[in-house]
Amino acid sequence: MTFPLAGTAPHPDDLLIFLAVARTGRFTTAAESLGLNHTTVSRRITALEKALDGRLLARAVGGWELTELGERARTAAEGVESAVTLLRSSDAEALQLSGVVRMSATDGFSAYIAAPAIAALQRQHPLLRVEIVTVTRRALQHRSGLDIEVVVGEPQVHRAESILLGYYNLGMYASRHYLQTNGTPKTIAELTEHPLVYFVDSMLQVDDLDAPRRLVPQMRESLSSTNVFVHVEGTRAGAGIGFLPCFMADQHADLVRLLPQDFQERLPYWMVLRTDSLRLPAVAALVAALRAQMKSYAAALLGHDTLGVTASTEPAN
Questions:
Q1: Is the N or the C terminus of the chain less surrounded, counting Cβ atoms within 10 Å?
Q2: Are 265 and 211 in contact (CB under 8 A)?
Q3: Of 179, 167, 185, 197, nearest in space to 268 by CA
Q4: Model pTM score
Q5: What is the 3-state secondary structure (H, E, C) of the chain?
């Protein structure tokens, strides 16, 4: 293969291959999406760097990050992609969003906010694909391969845009059967005599989620998990008293909220994007859909007791 001379015009195909690497942060993932092998992708990136006379990518934790030249090359590559898509599409197809948007979010947000928002968006744009990695962590400083991150607590990030999505409440819950067997705590002191269902303390990465250790450090741990759906189901099964997102716990008539005036921890959801991500139509559309779903779901996020619904230990009709 003959590489272009430094400073010559880059090949459009090389720009499109580079764009796949820029979006995924990995050569292997980009190669799979393009139907190429890793060696070919690496060779084409080298050719593009030769043509542009500079480095486009720098190694980062978990993948590759764009250099300043790489950011400019990505903008040019997106222009090539848009032009090619327009030429290949009919008028109707040109209005359709397509491609893959990759995001990470907590388990609860992914299920109750992201999933319905994506489904509604895909009814209008069936060619759009969204990949979600569910994780509870701080916002990454290097988000290779991710277009959108949704985190709990205000993020401290550089070279990224942060958007406040809204708030949700957490509260103490127990199953009706558990309360019938073990009694209903009427005070904080009585609550601390019961076991706690919550995150694994040693693996919790988000300071804002550490409320139980701050509010009721005397509660002994019963069932701990990194997955909030385990918290909900463990509480329903009677493993103890769970500190749960109200919008998830209130879905279950067999769960009762305890001491809502004492335990009403309100936390924010924040969205983090690369500074240039909103220029991508698919990413911008998903951001708008997530914000709309947060707005429509705002009351449920704060919980039934916040809305004036009083919990009862009596069986639901």
A1: C
A2: yes
A3: 167
A4: 0.72
A5: CCCCCCCCCCCHHHHHHHHHHHHHCCHHHHHHHHCCCHHHHHHHHHHHHHHHCCCCEEEECCEEEECHHHHHHHHHHHHHHHHHHHHHCCHHHHCCCCEEEEEEECHHHHHHHHHHHHHHHHHHCCCEEEEEEECCCCCCCCCCCCCEEEEECCCCCCCEEEEEEEEEEEEEEEEHHHHHHHCCCCCHHHHCCCCEEECCHHHCCCHHHCHHHHHCCCCCEEEECCCHHHHHHHHHCCCCEEEEEHHHHCCCCCEEEECCCCCCEEEEEEEEEECCHHHCHHHHHHHHHHHHHHHHCHHHHHCCHHHCCCCCCCCCC
CATH of domain 12-88: 1.10.10.10
Cα dihedral 134, 136, 138, 144, rounded to 10, equals -20
Q: What pLDDT, on the 0 to 100 scale, is given for residue 168?
A: 95
Q: At residue 193, does pLDDT exceed 60?
A: yes
Structure tokens at 34: 């393009």
Report the candidate in 52, 44, 45 with the shortest Cα–Cα distance to residue 68: 52
Distance of CA 87 to the CA centre of its chain: 34
User: Is the pLDDT confidence value at 92 over 70?
Assistant: no
- Least trusted range by pLDDT, from 2-6, 285-289, 291-295: 2-6
- The whole-angstrom separation of Cα 260 and Cα 101 is 38
- How many CB atoms sit inside 10 A of residue 9's CB? 8
Contact (CB, 8 A) for 148 and 117: no
* CA–CA separation, 17 and 211 (whole Å): 46
Identify the CA nearest to 56 among candidates 82, 98, 20. Answer: 20
Query: 43 φ, ψ to 5°?
Result: -65, -40
Contact yes or no for 307/246 (Cβ under 8 A): no
Q: Rounded to whole angstroms, how far apart are CA atoms 248 and 108?
A: 7
